[in-house]
Design goal:
The radius of gyration is 20 Å and the shape is elongated. Helix 1 packs antiparallel against helix 2 and helix 2 runs antiparallel to helix 3. The protein contains three helices and no strands. The chain is mainly α. The mean pLDDT is 89. The termini are far apart. The protein has one domain: Methane Monooxygenase Hydroxylase, Chain G, domain 1. Keywords: Ribonucleoprotein, Ribosomal protein, RNA-binding, rRNA-binding. Belongs to the bacterial ribosomal protein bS20 family. Binds directly to 16S ribosomal RNA.
Length: 98
């Protein structure tokens, strides 16, 4: 247990910020899940834009390190591009009647 007044205050503020940061990180996980579960390319791209915006905001606030946010955005972009290519490929196959 902290003995100094400033240390006691620091424990309280860190607990509050930890809870707040946890909710922000949870929102990112939810947005990533939405990208993975998207059925069509339009919803995938919409979810991707929302997730990137959210990650930029978290990096700006200092909740997530800017390099980590950049890495996550890169991974999500690759995933979204792969998903849209697969869906476009399957759409071409179904249009041709194969």
């Amino acid at each position: 247990m902290p003995q100094h007044k400033s240390c006691k205050k620091r424990v309280k503020t860190s607990a509050i910020s930890r809870e707040s940061n946890r909710t922000y990180r949870s929102q990112v996980k939810t947005l990533v899940r939405q990208i993975k579960e998207a059925k069509d390319p339009e919803s995938t791209q919409a979810s991707l834009r929302q997730a990137i915006s959210h990650l930029d905001r978290l990096a700006q606030k200092g909740i997530v390190h800017k390099n980590k946010a950049a890495n996550q955005k890169s991974k999500l972009s690759k995933l979204a591009n792969k998903m849209t290519q697969v869906s476009n490929h399957s759409r071409v196959l179904t249009d041709e009647g194969v």
